[in-house]
Every structure is written in structure tokens, then in C-alpha cells.
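FORM 12-B: Structure-to-Sequence Request
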């Protein structure tokens, strides 16, 4: 289950609360009533999980004006971003050579959006595998074929949503069952 909300709030505390309110709603179909007292476990790199429901996986993300949540019966990760300006130095550090070539063919708003599409896919992937930003992001690559997303790492499925004409990007990664 996936839920996304857009809001006027820019502060991190409000966005964090919005993400957890989405989690509460996403867990209802599973018969789980999430509260502030619901016991959580933290993985080695800080990824939370439900102590009493180890078979249910979730992940949260928030950025300026957006919050998102995914709940699944498989390991999952989600990232949402407010699309900003392309960041060459970041791309040089996190992109594969094929991704850099793809970026070199784009310009203007298309370049900004493509960079954030790649960035959110990489973030969703590392959040799904639970390793955090220490993962060498330039070792996992993505390519696009129409609406299909291909990844150099097997065993995962990806979805991506471009919202409000490219103002926001949300990417979801789930381990194949």
C-alpha cells in the first residue's frame, strides 16, 4: 500500500508527523492500529520495523511539501523529493557512467527532473535494503524504457510517480517475492 500527501508545511517536524499519520492509515488494512506507543525495532542502520509484526515492512519519506509511506509484505523503500536544480557534483559522485551519459543528453527542467528521478530511485533502493547513505550509490544503475524502470541489481521492482507536472518525484522499491 502506498500513500502520498502534499501539504503547505515546510518544516521537518510537521513533515515527519505527516509521514507517520500516513503509516497509521496504511497499516489499517492489515488490522494494525499504529500509535505512538507501537513498539518499533531499529535495524543496524536505523531502518525501523514493527516489533510485533515482523512480516509487515514499511518505509517513510518526506521533503518540503510532501510526505509518503509504503507498506508491504516484502522489504521496501520509498523516497520523495521536491524537484530542485540538477547538482553536477552529486551526480558525479552517485551516478553510473550510463546514468551520467543519460544526464548529459538532457537540459533545463528535463535535466533537473531526470536527476531527481535517478536520485529517488537510488534512495528508495538503499532504504529497501536497509543500508543507509554509506552504500556506494554509483554501483547501482537505473534506466528507463517507457514506463518501465530497469535496475542493474536484480530481485527488486520499482515504481515511480512524477507529481504536479514534475514538481515532485516519488520512487518505491520492493524486493521481489
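FORM 12-B RESPONSE
SEQUENCE OUT:
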Amino acid at each position: 500500500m502506498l500513500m502520498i500527501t502534499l501539504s503547505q508545511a515546510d518544516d521537518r517536524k510537521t513533515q515527519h508527523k505527516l509521514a507517520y499519520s500516513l503509516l497509521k492509515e496504511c497499516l489499517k488494512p492489515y488490522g494494525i492500529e499504529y500509535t505512538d506507543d507501537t513498539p518499533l525495532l531499529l535495524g543496524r542502520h536505523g531502518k525501523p520495523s514493527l516489533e510485533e509484526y515482523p512480516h509487515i515492512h514499511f518505509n517513510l519519506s518526506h521533503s518540503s511539501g510532501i510526505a509518503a509511506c509504503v507498506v508491504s509484505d516484502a522489504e521496501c523503500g520509498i523516497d520523495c523529493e521536491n524537484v530542485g536544480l540538477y547538482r553536477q557534483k552529486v551526480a558525479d559522485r552517485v551516478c553510473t557512467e550510463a546514468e551520467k551519459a543519460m544526464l548529459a543528453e538532457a537540459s533545463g527542467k528535463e535535466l533537473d527532473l531526470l536527476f531527481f528521478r535517478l536520485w529517488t530511485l537510488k534512495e528508495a533502493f538503499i532504504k529497501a535494503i536497509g543500508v543507509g547513505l554509506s552504500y556506494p550509490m554509483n554501483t547501482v544503475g537505473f534506466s528507463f524504457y517507457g514506463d518501465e524502470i530497469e535496475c542493474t541489481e536484480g530481485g527488486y521492482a520499482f515504481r515511480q510517480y512524477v507529481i504536479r507536472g514534475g514538481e515532485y518525484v516519488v520512487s518505491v522499491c520492493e524486493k521481489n517475492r
